[in-house]
Amino acid sequence: MLTITDVSKTFNPGTVNEKRALNKVNLTLNEGDFVTVIGGNGAGKSTMLNAIAGVWPVDEGSIVIDGEDVTGLPDYKRAALIGRVFQDPMTGTAATMEIEENLALAARRGKIRGLKWGVTKAEKAVFREKLQILNLGLEDRMTAKVGLLSGGQRQALTLLMATFQKPKLLLLDEHTAALDPKTAEKVLEATERVVQRDNLTTLMVTHNMKDAIAHGNRLIMMNEGKVILDIRGEEKSKLTVEDLLHQFSKVAGEEFVSDKAILG
Prior knowledge:
Layout: E1 2-11, E2 19-29, E3 34-39, H1 45-53, E4 60-65, E5 68-69, H2 75-78, E6 82-85, H3 99-107, H4 121-132, H5 151-162, E7 169-173, H6 181-198, E8 202-205, H7 209-214, E9 218-223, E10 226-232, H8 233-237, H9 241-252, H10 259-263
Helix pairs in contact: 3-5, 5-6
């Protein structure tokens, strides 16, 4: 579903602020893979997601989604293939609109829109069913303004909107980092349910090693713009934070220094 081949990206080349953010990254995701991405600050995690989404052009290499080479496509032309949830809960929803109106926008994404306004009874029934999977009671509050929701509720709604049209690829960029631990856990549980229900191919960047180990069928660790660890299957199911730190130091030749990731 996703193939990244020798992708590199350098910011501010030729200046004192030059930064090699991605260094010949190679990664392949099969359909239905749920891959968690871990690494220290500046490891290249979010930069890789931005490269996939087409936020800016890469310097070299190629990105293929479901057999389509999207390397040269701008972000708006990749939008039909990708669902994305960002770190900030305020991003991704319209605060002054109702829950059902936000979902209506997601439902009509990419479709021809006429002059008719409003949410139909049939759409409301679909929205209610989809909201139930979040297990947050939002199906009983569909006319509430989104701006009145908590950060966790908004983030869960954003997740639902991002996956409404079943994207080829779901990108989650530390989407629970701004939430308190209890709320973050609820959003992660909702994420698992949505991903499993629709068999979504997913890349989830997280700063929390425990979450990276607990979720998904595969874990990759990045360092200095490269993928240095790729753990899956039975090996991942038996993984502990201590094992992960040991493997990192063995491969990278240095200690993992992010307290936020270790203690999260």
